[in-house]
Amino acid sequence: MAKTRIGVLASGCGSNFQAIIDAVESGFIKNAEIAVLVSDVKDAFALERAKKHGIEPLFVNPKEFRKREDYDAKIVEEFKKRKINLVLLAGYMRLITPVFVKAFKNKVMNIHPAILPSFPGLHAQKQALDYGVKVSGCTVHFIDEEVDHGPIIVQRAVPVREDDTEETLSKRILEQEHLVYPLAVRMFVDGKISVKGRLVIVKE
Ligand code: GRF
Predict the structure, then answer these.
(1) Ligand 1: does its nearest atom lie under 6 Å from the Cβ of 111?
(2) Which of 104, 121, 137 represents a domain boundary (last residue)?
(3) Distance from the CA of 1 to the center of ligand 1, in angstroms?
(4) What local confidence, expressed as pLDDT, does residue 35 receive?
(5) Is residue 56 packed enough to be buried (19+ CB in 10 Å), middle (13-18) or exposed (0-12)?
(6) 144 and 177 share a domain?
(7) Which segments in the chain show pLDDT lower than 70?
(8) Which of 177, 178, 179, 180 to mutate to test the pocket of ligand 1 (most atoms within 8 A of CB)?
(9) Which of 151, 132, 133 is nearest to 196 (CA)?
């Protein structure tokens, strides 16, 4: 079976990116290679992580593109050039356009720090605290045209404590993110995932 070629998009620290790197390096994810890390932020720490692990770092400057669609078309082109067949959003702060969704239908995963469909968008952990939920968590899903909306691959619950702050809850959710994202990628790479409409079916 040919190796899955992974392309990652990140805007910031990239701790989820690091979790995927570790999972590939340790053999938890087999038969896959992270070919490129693309960032829209010039000094994103994720770019440093890529360099350290021999992964091509690529900064694509959004200011050089007039429309969001043009920017996405450029990224799609860069991914296609490198024969990428799985794209991971890992703290990527730009909105994705249909240009991207169409080019990689059910081949782009995102991780979100809440149990979707609750609390999509920014500051999901704060939204959960403000609402007063007793359980939150994280979701790995394929992207579609709507924000934090596509077919759900894995979710992990995290209890909310009465004394939680946005910071403490985010930290505990992030620990789970680092476990579930590699798991979802492994299932994809091993060919265990199929998608029917909104439903993701995982073969044993
Ligand atoms: C994570 O909480 C992820 O769920 C969200 O953005 C954050 C990225 O963190 N999409 P990191 O850059 O992976 O450390």
Answers:
(1) yes
(2) 104
(3) 31
(4) 98
(5) middle
(6) yes
(7) none
(8) 177
(9) 151
For the Cβ of 137 lying below 6 angstroms from any atom of ligand 1, the answer is: no
Distance 3 CA to ligand 1 centre (A): 26
Residue range(s) defining the domain that contains residue 196: 110-204
What tens digit of pLDDT does each residue of 73-113 get? 999 999 999 999 999 999 999 999 999 999 999 999 999 99
Question: Quick one: which H or E segment has residue 40?
Answer: none
Asked whether 14 lines ligand 1 (CB < 6 A), one says yes
Same domain, 76 and 165: no
45-52 vs 15-26: helix crossing angle, rounded to 10: 20
Nearest CA to ligand 1 atom 2: 113
Q: Is 112 a catalytic residue?
A: yes
Do 99 and 127 sit in the same domain of this protein? no
Instruction: Report pLDDT for 1.
Output: 78
Please state the pTM of the whole predicted model.
Answer: 0.97
d(CA 137, CA 115): 5
